[in-house]
Amino acid sequence: MEWKSDKIAHYKYCYEHTKKALKGTTLGWSLCVFTGVSFYKEIIHDLIFQKGTCDKGDVYANWCGCMDALKGKESRF
Is the pTM of this model over 0.70? Predict the structure, then answer.
């Protein structure tokens, strides 16, 4: 996958919001962020309202952002 600006935005949003979790709640919060962002953006915004294009790459970028934050890694961007 090529990290274009929209994928980077997905990554950063999920990374930053997962990092905001309180210690001890990070795994649950990470799953909520990933599920909420992916479901809303890809299903509701893009598919139902047809305001964008459904893209598996966006979901993958969300996943990477959440997982990097969960593992305590530095942001890629």
Answer: yes
